[in-house]
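Two folds, back to back.
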Amino acid sequence: MKSTRRDFLNGFAAFALSPFLLSLRSEQKQSFPISCSTYDWITFYKRQGRTWWQDPEASAQDFLRSGMKAIEPNIGTSAEARQMIDVLGRNDIKMPSVYVNSMLHDASEAEKSMQVVLSIAEETKKYGTKIVVTNPSPIEWGGKGLKSDAQLIEQARNVDRLGSALKKLGITLAYHTHDMELLAGAREFHHVMQNTSPENVSFCFDVHWIYRGSQNSQVAVFDVLKLYGNRVIELHIRQSVNGIWTETFGEGDIDYDRFAKELKDMNLHPHLVIEQCVEANTPDTMDAVQAHRIDFEKVKKTFQQIL
């Protein structure tokens, strides 16, 4: 029987209203405090000739001076997780989500990598972590190498397996991208999203990496929201002007006011994570604490309708 466009749209609408996705929307309404990635602090400290977390107590105190109470650290081992939790606990800083690297396109490395992620999740769960964000490693960081079709199939299978294992721990896996996943028609990005189960894998929408990876296209940003909005459990929030990351969050290349309104219209309440990093040619007028105070207030104001 020939399938029509109307049949497809009706089927898609039914899927969008499926019990699972409706329950996922309900789960997304759980209250997360606005958080901040450690990556932006690393970039600010580096600009100042300092090293983030070299002195954990001093770094934690700087973080608190910005007004924020929740953090998303990049954690590499379960031992790092325990050390991080020790410092955060003494300073009353929450950790609703963590970012963990993974190697999932290579069958010889995937099992070991997944076990590392799970060991970190088991430790961070004790401190209240609900989301593990992972960006499966590319062929080369900063490069343009493309994974083969076989590697993409292997990767998607392992992302789904990892999500299933984390789900058993009561933790949600959030798939994250940088810009390289949008090369070659965004084949890597779409393959993961189209070949993993929404029950096992949610989406960490790093808004500016989607923007930059699509040749600085705001159209692409909003199209991705339309395509995968129902799977968004977390946002990484960053702004730029003329393609260059700004020192603080505010008006710029991406219309975040519109973005927040569309989230509200879709009844989405993702975990908000500030990741306003600095790079070459970013204005240099303030330190990390000053910048993050501004970020925190502006993000609260911009996204207040979904908080």
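---
second:
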Amino acid sequence: MHTWLQKVDSLFCAYGGTMPPRELGADSHPASSCAEGFFVLESCLVISVLQGEVLEATPLSLVIDVGGVGYEVHVPVTTAEKVPPTGGRVRLFIHDVYREDGQDLYGFARREERDFFRMIVEKVSGIGPRTAIALLSKMSLPLLCSALAAGDVNALSRTPGIGKKTAERLVVELRDKVQAFAAPLATMPASAGGAGAMLPVASEEPLRVGGAVLDAVSALVTLGYKQDAADKAVQKAVQKLGPDAGTEAILRAALSSV
């Protein structure tokens, strides 16, 4: 049985389904309907969600065991910081990229983050998956939406790999498209992974973007606070102090609330 069929069969077993062994002849076309949520097209397995046990974890990648198959998944820092320790279970929303020499999987804690990532790589010329991951690692989704809506080129260009011209292109291409993502992200229920599964954190209204806000968020992250917690603390500080507050004042107020 061909490798791609073996992969599909292992996933069927992991999700409670079965797939009878088949052999492909020389003239067989490698396209086949499969279980709900998966299909094979031109020898590629299209995956929308992965749920399994964490085998390895770094700030920008995970290895997840799904039914005995280990999948390497590239993730932004904002997702990696929510992952339980090795041995815990996670559920990630997946965007897959196929190349002639292989396949890359990109995973996100929230569906909205996956969809936003997909929009960036598909709608903005010159932005590849790695740069999009860097962008979502530098800023949380609410903060990123606010930067795009406000046309804050300086904030966007702080991301490694994104210069002023690329940031301007991001604003032009996405400014009118971020409204769907800018709404508050509701808290999601625990995933089917059971104890230890990732719980995406609810976000309040998008942060007001500015140099002082970004510097305060970056300072909190450097001090060891997670991106979501830093965003929320800074937002509360800005609401209390006003949009013209400086970085030092915002940081002091934010630290008093975390």
